[in-house]
Design a protein that fits this description.
Length: 355
């Protein structure tokens, strides 16, 4: 389903019923929409699965509906890359607290995800919803921002007044927001794009755009409060949702170091660390990616990657180790439990800061 987690289907969804399946988290990572990068980050999959499970259980405890059913506890602690990852699970579905080891598999309910037809960069959402009926994955990402850093795309796409802020232009430093900004972007288009509210309302289909925003704001608040308990700052993130039986439920995975940006005393504790590292050490590849995306827009081609003439190089071993420790230590701190043998978050962050 994505470049960093595998997707298991055990019972297909129908027009009137949810299905049953699982995410199997790998140790792969992706930056700049590239897909699978040359390296793996050890225990990254278990970190994301654990953090995602913790957050789903937090949301459920606060009355926010989700598609989460539990984690799969397996005494053999099989790897997400195990060949059995495409066959029915053989472990017990339990809460995160009852898992014997940091899990790599998450049991979920499944909704329908029809094909989104397109010609070039023109996408047929009417066909998507005709096929989906009233049981479907809403083809949107709902983005929430608690701050506007210097490199944020928001600065290039909007003015402060668009968000009720008292600036004529964006200040040079980070803007901390008293109220989060919520935006909508496409989910299944080859190059994601931000949408006007009316565009998002059309793409959402039967699902209410107002309810989607309310769910996003509630999720953002709960994640921000949980992060603060670990002295982490929750900067921004996103959710994806399904629509079933007249109800919006949080889907995919929520509040991990891949989906969201967190910082610890000013240092990124998220995938953003790897993005910034590639910008510093492999600028030719990063620039080639950006150029290919722009060329694809001009040529009305969905597959921008076919236009990219550069490929990423592997990371040095010390960077892989630092990334592993950051994911593991960050998860330990966030969930308040020593799931991983890892340094303290303060020590892990100190290593990354010096790279």
């Amino acid at each position: 389903m994505t470049s960093v987690k595998e997707f298991r289907v055990e019972r297909e969804p129908t027009a009137t019923e949810l299905g049953r399946g699982a995410f199997v988290f790998t140790d792969d990572y992706s930056v700049f929409d590239w897909g699978k990068m040359p390296d793996e980050i050890p225990q990254k999959g278990a970190s994301l699965c654990s953090m995602g499970a913790f957050n789903f259980e937090l949301l459920e405890s606060e009355g926010v509906p989700t598609h989460y059913e539990g984690v799969v506890s397996d005494s053999e602690a099989r790897s997400a890359s195990d060949s059995r990852a495409v066959e029915p699970r053989d472990g017990e579905v339990v809460s995160l607290a009852d898992a014997d080891e940091p899990p790599t598999e998450m049991a979920i309910e499944l909704t329908q995800v029809p094909t989104l037809p397109h010609e070039g960069r023109e996408y047929d959402y009417e066909a998507y919803h005709t096929a989906a009926g009233d049981n479907y994955l809403i083809p949107l990402e709902v983005v929430f921002r608690n701050s506007v850093p210097v490199g944020s795309s928001l600065r290039h796409r909007t003015d402060p007044v668009d968000h009720g802020l008292d600036f004529e232009s964006w200040p040079e430093g980070v803007v901390q927001l008293e109220e989060p900004i919520v935006e909508f972007s496409t989910k299944y288009e080859e190059g994601d794009r931000y949408l006007s509210r009316s565009e998002a309302d059309h793409i959402a289909g039967t699902a209410s755009i107002d309810q989607l925003e309310n769910v996003a704001r509630t999720v953002n608040r709960l994640l921000t409060e949980q992060a603060a308990k670990a002295d982490l700052t929750h900067e921004d993130g996103k959710i994806e949702c399904l629509y079933f039986d007249g109800e919006i439920r949080v889907a995919d995975v929520v509040g991990t170091f891949d989906e969201n940006r967190f910082s610890f005393h000013g240092q990124q504790v998220s995938k953003e660390f790897l993005r910034q590292y590639h910008k510093r050490t492999q600028p030719e590849w990063v620039n080639a990616v950006n150029d290919a995306k722009e060329q694809a827009k001009v040529q009305d081609i969905a597959d921008w990657k076919s236009l990219c003439e550069e490929s990423p190089d592997p990371l040095d071993d010390d960077i892989v180790t630092a990334a592993r420790d950051l994911y593991a230590a960050g998860t330990n701190a966030y969930v308040g439990r020593e799931l991983f043998d890892a340094p303290s978050l303060e020590d892990a962050v100190a290593v990354v800061r010096d790279l």
